[in-house]
Amino acid sequence: KQEVTQIPAALSVPEGENLVLNCSFTDSAIYNLQWFRQDPGKGLTSLLLIQSSQREQTSGRLNASLDKSSGRSTLYIAASQPGDSATYLCAVEGFSNQFYFGTGTSLTVIP
Amino acid sequence: DAGVIQSPRHEVTEMGQEVTLRCKPISGHNSLFWYRQTMMRGLELLIYFNNNVPIDDSGMPEDRFSAKMPNASFSTLKIQPSEPRDSAVYFCASSTGVGELFFGEGSRLTVL
């Protein structure tokens, strides 16, 4: 069964710093990998989707990379802002159309 | 599109009562998922449908839980009878089958 791990579980950085969130998965047979953001009391908002044939996706200050062979993805956030404070989750979609989620990284950006 | 729509947003009920959560997926999406999120266990998949057919319900905790998808634009998750340990946020999500997953805002259930 696919297992998805996110490290660290929590991260606190000063405003303006660049940061990297990590996601690892055990089975490389995936359709895609997706990064989500969740604010307290809210649903999950999709940030970036990387298809299995792609290596990376960018949206504004966010850049996500995918290395299927090593079972890893990173989410890079440039010039962090207090508004980036949230929990970030990654999910991989397997060939059975199931999505497997990590437990998330709780990010706090200190003004 | 209005996104995935869930109702009610909040539900407070007493133990033993029936609870029904509702979901309207994004139009054109043929896969629908029900998740439960708690602090202790994170995000858990309860059941998912493809083209209105339940594909995997192995995450449904027990027989008190049931889910239906009578058509492509509506699904329900029912708990009968409810118990305090069912208190959680229940999310509905939909996708096109191979692609981006979109979540609703969730239904926060409290069972007293």
Helix content of chain A: under 10%
Arithmetic mean of pLDDT of chain B: 94
Beginning-to-end CA distance, first to last residue of chain A: 41 Å
**Helix share bin of chain B:** under 10%
Radius of gyration of chain A: 13 Å
Q: Which stretches of chain B are poorly predicted, pLDDT < 50 over at least 5 residues?
A: none
Secondary structural class of chain B? mainly beta
Order of helices and strands of chain A: EEEEEEEEEEE
Tell me the overall shape of chain B: globular
What do you see in this structure?
The complex is a heterodimer of chains A (111) and B (112). By secondary structure, chain A is an all-beta fold. Chain A has strands spanning 4-7, 10-14, 19-25, 30-38, 44-51, 56-59, 62-67, 72-77, 86-94, 99-101, 105-110. In chain A, strands 2, 4, 5, 9, 10 and 11 form a six-stranded mixed sheet that branches. Chain A is globular, with a radius of gyration of 13 Å. In chain B, 0% of the residues lie in helices and 55% in strands. In chain B, a hairpin with a 3-residue loop joins strand 4 (31-38) and strand 5 (42-50). The interface between A and B is medium-sized, with 21 and 22 residues.
Q: How are the SSEs placed, and which strands pair?
A:
The complex is a heterodimer of chains A (111) and B (112).
Chain A: E1 4-7, E2 10-14, E3 19-25, E4 30-38, E5 44-51, E6 56-59, E7 62-67, E8 72-77, E9 86-94, E10 99-101, E11 105-110
Parallel strand pairs in A: 2-11
Antiparallel strand pairs in A: 1-3, 3-8, 4-5, 4-9, 6-7, 7-8, 9-10, 9-11
Chain B: E1 5-7, E2 10-13, E3 19-24, E4 31-38, E5 42-50, E6 53-56, E7 65-71, E8 74-79, E9 88-95, E10 102-103, E11 107-111
Parallel strand pairs in B: 2-11
Antiparallel strand pairs in B: 1-3, 3-8, 4-5, 4-9, 5-6, 7-8, 9-10, 9-11
